């Protein structure tokens, strides 16, 4: 789904690669025992290691290593049994060591691949170049004081996985689909909570423009884009900016830019430029990381069913469309909810009710599935009433609205309100006779060839029945009685 | 390999060490001596030898994922030139 952008000199193609920083879910930091909880008072989760006091030594968190291996396996990637931590040297007030411990030449995870779901129901494979472990920096607050910057080191030393993609994406939509899929995989694995609002997943966008089929152009890197919406907006803006420069005969400077959420533009971050000489070298405080025999296999055995596998199973086992299956597997809880609803019932009906009705309502009310007033068992109960003809689909929507409101069982609402469908042929005959008697002129017109009036009779009869007439039975009876 | 004064100035800048122009020739000469000494290593034939990242014949030891915070904020901030409301305070970093 390469989306070409028309310029003055012809069409342009975007080439996009993403670097995603994902905070590893762990109790303590990468190299220290300080906690990782979000939102603590400033500098209360800082060990002397994180503050880089002289003489402090880093000790690697074994669980974080396992989380990285697990993520690598979830990205269908090569896991490297031997990896090396290096120092990336630069000065910034929120980096007390004067270097970030990262992995450079020998990352823990190498090449992999994930499949993204596009809005038209097709999929596309996006290459993963590598995943490496590194320390997060602290947080600088520049807006608290006109002359000073405030620094909080709570995040300093928290374990991050930097996941680098190949430049395989060709539109903002594909980039968004990649971030969504990556987040879903990380959440399924439990290796990162994927919470972009709290900064536990952050995104750097690399973008260059070219004429279709031409060699790669010079790219710019847009740093720290912190929501999927901003990723798309930053890409759209930056593509236009680069096209404008190129079409005016200019050239793109390879540089780091910043997404300005307030103005909706990307801006050059000149201050970072000269810091680009990172002088990596192996960290002498740390030994090479060698994974013990059997660790990879042991972790592989604990992997859950991942979104793509689940999606394909939903399509095969339940006969769902690629789109519906994609929506349902986007979150693990949602997929589990659906499977509970679908079990022993019509799977497509279950999918429709879960997606269109329930997720629709939750979305409108800004609620999570966890806060749903209608449980999977209760939604299943409603579907049972539709399937055994106790209520029609139309009445079911009424019952559902009531369930959302009160949290009651469908059957209880149907009994209470007397919504049980009329399936008694005698009652329906009587209903139809009444409607025909009251509209004799229309009966004559219908019999005279005005077929369209059939809908009018259905509507009238349904109204008289209070919506409770069985639609199939009603249609059949009307046809029989109206026949000339 | 030989360093000139501008390279010395760049290294000093990267290391955030103030080096006056009058000190550069002297430092360039000293650094060149060190580099010459290290360059002797290239006389050794290292074909087929795997690059070494650590001299100890050991691999990394791991610690369990347990929270153990032995210091409080006052200890962390004790050496800070300035702090306000629990934050380190530094001269404004303009972005």
From TrEMBL, chain A:
| GO MF annotations, alphabetized | ATP binding; glutaminyl-tRNA synthase (glutamine-hydrolyzing) activity
Q: Has UniProt tagged this entry with the keyword ATP-binding?
A: yes
Q: Could you tell me which InterPro entries the record lists for this protein?
A: Asn/Gln-tRNA_amidoTrfase_suB/E, Asn/Gln-tRNA_Trfase_suB/E_cat, Asn/Gln_amidotransferase, Asn/Gln_tRNA_amidoTrase-B-like, GatB, GatB_C_1, GatB_Yqey_C_2, Gln-tRNA_amidoTrfase_suB_CS
On subunit structure and binding partners, the annotation says: Heterotrimer of A, B and C subunits.
Q: Which family does it belong to?
A: Belongs to the GatB/GatE family. GatB subfamily.
> What residues does the Asn/Gln amidotransferase domain cover?
336-482
Biological role: Allows the formation of correctly charged Asn-tRNA(Asn) or Gln-tRNA(Gln) through the transamidation of misacylated Asp-tRNA(Asn) or Glu-tRNA(Gln) in organisms which lack either or both of asparaginyl-tRNA or glutaminyl-tRNA synthetases. The reaction takes place in the presence of glutamine and ATP through an activated phospho-Asp-tRNA(Asn) or phospho-Glu-tRNA(Gln).
Give the enzyme's EC designation.
6.3.5.-
Q: Name one GO biological process term.
A: translation
Query: Which keywords appear in this protein's UniProt record, sorted alphabetically?
Result: ATP-binding, Ligase, Nucleotide-binding, Protein biosynthesis
Record protein name field:
Aspartyl/glutamyl-tRNA(Asn/Gln) amidotransferase subunit B
Q: Which reaction does it catalyse?
A: L-aspartyl-tRNA(Asn) + L-glutamine + ATP + H2O = L-asparaginyl-tRNA(Asn) + L-glutamate + ADP + phosphate + 2 H(+); L-glutamyl-tRNA(Gln) + L-glutamine + ATP + H2O = L-glutaminyl-tRNA(Gln) + L-glutamate + ADP + phosphate + H(+)
Q: Which Gene3D superfamilies match?
A: 1.10.10.410, GatB domain, N-terminal subdomain
Automatic annotation (TrEMBL), chain B:
Question: Organism source for this protein?
Answer: Roseiterribacter gracilis
Instruction: Write out the function statement from the record.
Output: Allows the formation of correctly charged Asn-tRNA(Asn) or Gln-tRNA(Gln) through the transamidation of misacylated Asp-tRNA(Asn) or Glu-tRNA(Gln) in organisms which lack either or both of asparaginyl-tRNA or glutaminyl-tRNA synthetases. The reaction takes place in the presence of glutamine and ATP through an activated phospho-Asp-tRNA(Asn) or phospho-Glu-tRNA(Gln).
What is the main EC category here? ligase
E.C. number: 6.3.5.-
User: A biological process (GO) annotation for this entry?
Assistant: glutaminyl-tRNAGln biosynthesis via transamidation
Q: Which reaction does it catalyse?
A: L-glutamyl-tRNA(Gln) + L-glutamine + ATP + H2O = L-glutaminyl-tRNA(Gln) + L-glutamate + ADP + phosphate + H(+); L-aspartyl-tRNA(Asn) + L-glutamine + ATP + H2O = L-asparaginyl-tRNA(Asn) + L-glutamate + ADP + phosphate + 2 H(+)
Entry-linked SUPFAM superfamilies:
Glu-tRNAGln amidotransferase C subunit
Which controlled-vocabulary keywords does the entry list? ATP-binding, Ligase, Nucleotide-binding, Protein biosynthesis
KW ATP-binding (keyword) present: yes
Name one molecular function that GO assigns to this entry. Answer: glutaminyl-tRNA synthase (glutamine-hydrolyzing) activity
Q: What is the lineage of its organism?
A: Bacteria, Pseudomonadati, Pseudomonadota, Alphaproteobacteria, Rhodospirillales
What name does this protein carry?
Aspartyl/glutamyl-tRNA(Asn/Gln) amidotransferase subunit C
Quaternary structure (record): Heterotrimer of A, B and C subunits.
Report the sequence similarity comment from the record.
Belongs to the GatC family.
């Amino acid at each position: 789904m390469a989306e070409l952008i028309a310029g003055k000199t012809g069409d342009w193609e975007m080439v996009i690669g993403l670097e995603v920083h994902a905070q590893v879910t762990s109790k303590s930091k990468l190299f220290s025992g300080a906690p990782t909880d979000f939102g603590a008072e400033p500098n209360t989760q800082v060990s002397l290691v994180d503050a880089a006091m002289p003489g402090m030594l880093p000790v690697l968190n074994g669980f974080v290593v396992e989380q990285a291996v697990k993520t690598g396996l979830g990205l269908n990637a090569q896991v490297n049994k031997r990896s090396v931590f290096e120092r990336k040297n630069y000065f910034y007030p929120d980096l007390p060591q004067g270097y970030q411990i990262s992995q450079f030449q020998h990352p823990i995870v190498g090449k992999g691949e994930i499949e993204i779901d596009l809005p038209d129901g097709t999929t596309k494979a996006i290459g993963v170049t590598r995943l490496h472990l590194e320390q997060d920096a602290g947080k600088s607050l520049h807006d608290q004081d006109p002359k000073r910057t405030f620094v909080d080191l709570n995040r300093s030393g928290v374990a991050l996985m930097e996941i680098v993609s190949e430049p395989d994406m060709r539109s903002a939509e594909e980039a968004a689909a990649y971030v969504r899929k990556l987040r879903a995989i990380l959440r399924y694995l439990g290796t990162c909570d994927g919470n972009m609002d709290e900064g536990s997943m952050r995104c750097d966008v690399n973008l260059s423009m070219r004429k279709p089929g031409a060699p790669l152009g010079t790219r710019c890197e847009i740093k720290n884009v912190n929501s999927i919406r901003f990723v798309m907006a930053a890409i759209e803006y930056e593509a236009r900016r680069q096209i404008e420069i190129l079409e005016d005969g200019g050239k793109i400077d390879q540089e780091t830019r910043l997404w300005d959420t307030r103005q909706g533009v990307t801006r050059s971050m000149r201050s970072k430029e000269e810091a680009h000489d990172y002088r990596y070298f192996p960290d002498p405080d740390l030994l090479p990381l060698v994974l013990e025999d059997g660790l990879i296999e042991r972790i592989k055995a604990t992997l859950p069913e991942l979104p793509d596998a689940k999606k394909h199973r939903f399509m095969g086992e339940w006969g769902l469309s690629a789109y519906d299956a994609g929506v349902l597997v986007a979150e693990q809880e949602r997929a589990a909810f659906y499977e509970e609803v679908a079990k022993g019932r019509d799977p497509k009906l279950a999918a429709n009710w879960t997606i269109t009705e329930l997720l629709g309502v939750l979305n409108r009310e800004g609620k999570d599935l966890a806060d749903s007033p209608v449980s999977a068992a209760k939604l299943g109960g409603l579907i049972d009433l539709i399937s055994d003809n106790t209520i029609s689909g139309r009445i079911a929507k009424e019952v559902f609205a009531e369930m959302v409101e009160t949290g009651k069982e469908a059957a209880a609402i149907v009994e209470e309100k007397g919504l049980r469908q009329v399936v008694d042929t005698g009652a329906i005959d009587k209903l139809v006779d009444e409607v025909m008697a009251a509209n004799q002129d229309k009966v004559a017109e219908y019999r005279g060839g005005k077929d369209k009036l059939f809908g009018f009779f259905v509507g009238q009869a349904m109204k008289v029945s209070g919506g409770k007439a069985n639609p199939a039975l009603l249609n059949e009876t009307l046809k029989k009685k109206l026949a000339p | 390999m030989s360093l000139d004064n501008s390279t010395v100035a760049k290294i000093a800048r990267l290391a955030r060490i103030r080096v006056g122009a009058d000190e550069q020739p002297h430092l360039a000469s000293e650094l060149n001596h060190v580099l010459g000494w290290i360059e002797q290593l290239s006389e050794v034939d290292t074909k087929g030898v795997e690059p070494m990242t650590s001299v100890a014949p050991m691999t990394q030891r791991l610690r369990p994922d347990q929270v153990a915070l032995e210091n409080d904020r006052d200890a962390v901030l004790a050496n800070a030139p300035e702090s306000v409301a629990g934050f380190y305070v530094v001269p404004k970093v303009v972005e």
